[in-house]
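User: Can you help me understand a structure? I only have the sequence.
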Amino acid sequence: MTIMSRVAAFFRSRWLGGVPLDRLFWRDLVVVGTAINVASSVAALILLGLKLPLALVLAVHFAPVPYNIFLTFAVWRTAGKSSGAKASLMTLGASLWLILVVVA
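Assistant: Let's start by predicting it. Here is the structure, written out as tokens:
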């Protein structure tokens, strides 16, 4: 399996609800998604400290936003396939997380 097919399988499985909601929310969104955002923000601060163009700094800082939106929608779609308070809380949590990482 090539790297591109593995990447495609990663996104497809999350979009189609093939990953358990707990793993999608806690591991993919909260842990990995937050780590990517922190790394992007640190890189942007370093670039800002090096006095590189603001456009580049902002591009690096906001680069994870499409991935953040994807993860949030993937949680919403997966939670929509199940019912209960847990699914509703994870949907709310994903929404709040998206707002937090985009604003911060």
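Now, to help you interpret it: Residues 21-103 form one domain. The first helix runs from residue 3 to 15. Let me know which part you'd like to focus on.
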